[in-house]
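Thread amino acids onto this structure.
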C-alpha cells in the first residue's frame, strides 16, 4: 500500500531539508521525498498542511522499570507514553530487577517491546554485573542479543579501572558507554543543588563538583583508551565546559541534557514548597547552569535532548522531600518543553530535530533519524501551534510524577508512524 503525507513542512537535518515537501511511503519504507502536489497514482493521502513532518523522535534515555517494578511502569505503558510524546524509538536503561546484565533479560525486553506494538524499544545493557561496579557484564552476549549500549545508570561506576576496561572492551562492538556522572562520596546525603537555596531550605546539598569530577575522569579515560563515551543528563556549566574542551581536543565524547535542566532551576524546589516532583538526580541547578545548557544545545556541545523518563508510584514520591525517590516522568512532555526553546528563538527547529532524532540515532547506531528514501518510515508529525495543558492523571505512563502538572504548553505530536503504520493518538 502506498501512502502520501501531503502539504507538510519537512524538517530533516539528515538531508538538510526544511521546506514544504510531501512524503511517499510504501511497504513500511520512505519511497520518495516529493515536491508539493507531485502526483502519485494509487496512493492513500493524508493532509498534513500546516504541520511539521520530522524523522521519528528518539529518546536515548528512559527507564521502563520492567522487569521487577511493573507497578511503576511496564514496557508496554512506557512505549505507549513514548508515542504520545512523539517518540518512535526509545532506549531503556538496565536498572530493573533483575538488572539487565544478561542475554535473557535483553531478549525479554525486546520481545515485550515488539508485542506492545508502540514505540520501538532498544535495551541498554549493564556495564557491570548487577550494576554493582565490581565485574564487567557479559558485553559480547548482550550485544548479540540486541543491546545498543551499556550503562549502570542510576549508579555511577566508581571504580576507574573498571570503567577503563569497559571502554576498551566495547571498542570491538562500536557501542557507547553511557556514563552516570556522579561521585557518591561528594554527593553523600545531598538531595538538591548545594547553594544558598539549599541552606535556606535546610536541605543537604549536592555540589556541582560531584558531577564534574566524574565528567573529567570519564573524558580522560575515553581519551586514554581512544574509545567513545556518552555522558548522561549533564546539569552544570562546569560539565559543559569540560565537554567543550574535550571535543576541541578530539576526544570521542557525546553528551545529553534533559528538559527539566533547561526549563527549571533549584528555585522550583522552594517555589513548590518542597514538592518531591522537583527532586531529580542530578538535582535542578542554578540559573547560570540552566543558561549554560541552553547555550550548549545551540552551539553543538550537547548532542542530545533526552527525557530521562523516570516513572515512580505515589508511595515513593508523595513523601517528605529528603526521602522521596528522584525522577520525573518525562516522555509525554519532553517535546513540548523543548519546543519552548524554538519559540524563544534559542534553537532552530532543525537543530531541535537533530538533538531529538538524528543524533540519538547516530550515537546508538540505529537505522533511524532520517527520512531519506529507503529508510524505515518512522515519522513524527508535529503541530507547532497546538495548545494543551499537562495533566499528570491523564498520562499514558503509569508514572504521574511530573513537576509540570498543570502547565500550559504549545506544540505537540499529532501523528506518529512506525514502519509506515500510523499509531492512533486519541
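Threaded sequence (426 positions):
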Amino acid at each position: 500500500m502506498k501512502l502520501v503525507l501531503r502539504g507538510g513542512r519537512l524538517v530533516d537535518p539528515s538531508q538538510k531539508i526544511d521546506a514544504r515537501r510531501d512524503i511517499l511511503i510504501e511497504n513500511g519504507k520512505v519511497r520518495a521525498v516529493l515536491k508539493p502536489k507531485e502526483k502519485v497514482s494509487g496512493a492513500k493521502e493524508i493532509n498534513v498542511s500546516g504541520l511539521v513532518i520530522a524523522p521519528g523522535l528518539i529518546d536515548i534515555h528512559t527507564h521502563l522499570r520492567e522487569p521487577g517494578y511493573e507497578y511503576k511502569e511496564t514496557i508496554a505503558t512506557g512505549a505507549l507514553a513514548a508515542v504520545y510524546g512523539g517518540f518512535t524509538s526509545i532506549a531503556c536503561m538496565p536498572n530493573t530487577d533483575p538488572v539487565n546484565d544478561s542475554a535473557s533479560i535483553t531478549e525479554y525486553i525486546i520481545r515485550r517491546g515488539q508485542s506492545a506494538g508502540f514505540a520501538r524499544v532498544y535495551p541498554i545493557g549493564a556495564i557491570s554485573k548487577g550494576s554493582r561496579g565490581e565485574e564487567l557484564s557479559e558485553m559480547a552476549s548482550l550485544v548479540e542479543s540486541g543491546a545498543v549500549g551499556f550503562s549502570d545508570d542510576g549508579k555511577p561506576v566508581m571504580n576507574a579501572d573498571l570503567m577503563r576496561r569497559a571502554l576498551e572492551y566495547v571498542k570491538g562492538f562500536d557501542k557507547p558507554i553511557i556514563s552516570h556522572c556522579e561521585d557518591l562520596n561528594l554527593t553523600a546525603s545531598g538531595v538538591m543543588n548545594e547553594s544558598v537555596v539549599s541552606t535556606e531550605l535546610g536541605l543537604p546539598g549536592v555540589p556541582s563538583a560531584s558531577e564534574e569530577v566524574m565528567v573529567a575522569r570519564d573524558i580522560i579515560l575515553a581519551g586514554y583508551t581512544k574509545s567513545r563515551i556518552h555522558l548522561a543528563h549533564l546539569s552544570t556549566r562546569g560539565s559543559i565546559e569540560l565537554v567543550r574542551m574535550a571535543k576541541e581536543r578530539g576526544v570521542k565524547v557525546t553528551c545529553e541534557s534533559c528538559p527539566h535542566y533547561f526549563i527549571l532551576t533549584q528555585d522550583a524546589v522552594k517555589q513548590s514548597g518542597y514538592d518531591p516532583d522537583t527532586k531529580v538526580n542530578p538535582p535542578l541547578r542554578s540559573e547560570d547552569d540552566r543558561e549554560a545548557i541552553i547555550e550548549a544545545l545551540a552551539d553543538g556541545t550537547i548532542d542530545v535532548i533526552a527525557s530521562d523518563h523516570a516513572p515512580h508510584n505515589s508511595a515513593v514520591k508523595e513523601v517528605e522531600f529528603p526521602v522521596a525517590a528522584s525522577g520525573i516522568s518525562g516522555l509525554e512532555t519532553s517535546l513540548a518543553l523543548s519546543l519552548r526553546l524554538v519559540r524563544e528563538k534559542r534553537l532552530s527547529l532543525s537543530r531541535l530535530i537533530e538533538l531529538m532524532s538524528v543524533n540519538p540515532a547516530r550515537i546508538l547506531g540505529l537505522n533511524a533519524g532520517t527520512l531519506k528514501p529507503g529508510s524505515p518510515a518512522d515519522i513524527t508529525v508535529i503541530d507547532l501551534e497546538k495548545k494543551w495543558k499537562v495533566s499528570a492523571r491523564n498520562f499514558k505512563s503509569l508514572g504521574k510524577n511530573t513537576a509540570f502538572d498543570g502547565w500550559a504548553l504549545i506544540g505537540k505530536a499529532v501523528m506518529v508512524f512506525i514502519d509506515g503504520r500510523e499509531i492512533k493518538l486519541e
